[in-house]
Specification:
The protein is of the alpha/beta class. It has nine helices and 15 strands. About 25% of the residues lie in helices and about 25% in strands. Helix 6 links the parallel strand 11 and strand 12. The strands form three sheets. Strands 3, 4, 5, 6, 7, 14 and 15 form a seven-stranded mixed beta sheet that branches. It comes from Streptomyces triculaminicus.
Length: about 300
C-alpha cells in the first residue's frame, strides 16, 4: 500500500512511500481510509520529524477487517476514527475504542474533520463547566477547534467573544453568533472564562480582562512564544483567577466521536472545511495549514470517499 512519510523538508514535508499493510492488534479494526484531516500541530512535528514518525490522527473510511476480539464494528461499516498515528495511508489499524459508526447522512469528508478538533472542543467545554449566561473569551479562534468551540458554546448559551487574526477568518464565527475581534486588546471584558490557545503576550492580556474568581483554560501556544507572567502585574488585575493547563489527549475516544457524529446528524454542529483535495496535494496543504492560509479544516481524499 501507499502511505505518506515525513521528508524533513519544510517546503514539501511529506512524500509517498510503499509500505506493508498494517496488521491489527486483537482490539483493532483495519480501516480502508477514504479521507483524513491533518492538524496544525502535526505540521509542527514535521518540521523536525523524529525517526519513525508516521502522522495521521483523524480518519474516516470503511472497516475491511473487524477486530479479532469481537469488539467494535463489523466488516463493511463506515466509521470515523482517531488512531494515535499512521492515518495518512491507504489502510490504518485503529483501536475499536476510538471508532464511531457513521450514519448514511454523514459523508467521509465531514467525518474526517471531526476527531482531534471536535474532541478537543468537547473536552475543553466540559473543563470550562456550564456556560449558559457566562461571558467567554476564545483566542486563536479561526482554526478547527475554534469553530467547534464557538458553535457549541453559543448553542449552550454563552456570550462568546472570539479573537481572530483577520476579518475574513472571523466571518464564519460571527455567523455562528460570536462577537469577533482581531486583537485581544480589543476584547471587551470582563470575562468569566477565557479559553486561551495562543500563548506569548496574549495570555497575560487575556488574563487581565477576567472577573475575580474566573477560570482561564490554557490549551495551546499557537504563537510558539512562551508566556511571561509578572506576579505584581497580577496583583493589579482580577483576584483569585485560576489558570488551568489543558491537553485533550486520553483514550478512549469512541464516546466523544459518537457524540460529535450525533451533533452533526442533528444539525447542531457544522464542520468548517476550508479545503478538500486529493491526497496527492497533501504536502502543499500542510504548508498552507501551517502558515494559516486555510480557514477551518483541510480534508484529503485517498479515493472512494463519499
Amino acid at each position: 500500500m501507499q502511505r505518506l512519510i515525513p521528508t524533513g523538508d519544510a517546503a514539501r514535508p511529506v512524500a509517498f512511500a510503499e509500505a506493508p499493510q498494517p496488521v491489527p492488534e486483537r482490539d483493532e479494526a483495519l480501516i480502508k481510509v477514504e479521507a483524513f484531516a491533518p492538524n496544525r500541530g502535526e505540521t509542527f512535528l514535521l518540521e523536525a520529524p523524529r525517526p519513525g514518525l508516521l502522522p495521521g490522527k483523524d480518519i474516516a473510511g470503511l472497516v475491511v477487517q473487524a477486530a479479532a476480539d469481537g469488539s467494535g464494528p463489523g466488516i463493511g461499516t463506515r466509521v470515523v476514527g482517531h488512531p494515535a498515528h499512521s492515518g495518512w495511508a491507504e489502510y490504518a489499524a485503529v483501536p475499536t475504542h476510538s471508532l464511531a459508526v457513521l450514519p448514511d447522512g454523514i459523508d467521509s469528508v465531514r467525518a474526517a474533520a471531526l476527531p482531534l478538533a471536535g474532541i478537543t472542543a468537547l473536552r475543553l467545554l466540559r473543563t470550562a463547566g456550564s456556560l449558559a449566561g457566562r461571558r467567554v473569551l476564545l483566542t486563536g479562534a479561526s482554526g478547527g477547534v475554534g469553530h467547534y468551540v464557538t458553535e457549541l458554546a453559543v448553542g449552550a448559551g454563552a456570550d462568546l467573544t472570539a479573537v481572530t487574526a483577520t476579518p475574513v477568518r472571523g466571518e464564519r464565527l460571527a455567523e455562528l453568533g460570536a462577537t469577533v475581534v482581531h486583537d485581544v486588546a480589543a476584547a471587551q471584558g470582563p470575562f468569566d472564562v477565557v479559553l486561551e490557545s495562543t500563548g506569548g503576550p496574549g495570555l497575560p492580556l487575556a488574563l487581565s480582562k477576567m472577573r475575580p474568581d474566573g477560570l482561564l483554560v490554557w490549551f495551546g501556544q499557537a504563537s510558539r512564544t512562551p508566556v511571561t507572567l509578572d506576579f505584581f502585574d497580577l496583583l493589579g488585575g482580577p483576584e483569585r483567577v485560576t489558570i488551568q493547563h489543558f491537553h485533550y489527549a486520553g483514550a478512549p475516544y469512541g464516546a466523544d466521536l459518537e457524540a460529535l457524529v450525533s451533533l452533526v446528524e442533528r444539525g447542531r454542529l457544522h464542520p468548517e472545511i476550508g479545503r478538500i483535495a486529493d491526497w496527492s496535494e497533501t504536502a502543499g496543504t500542510l504548508v498552507d495549514l501551517r502558515e494559516r492560509r486555510i480557514r477551518g479544516k483541510a480534508v484529503l481524499l485517498t479515493g472512494g470517499a463519499r
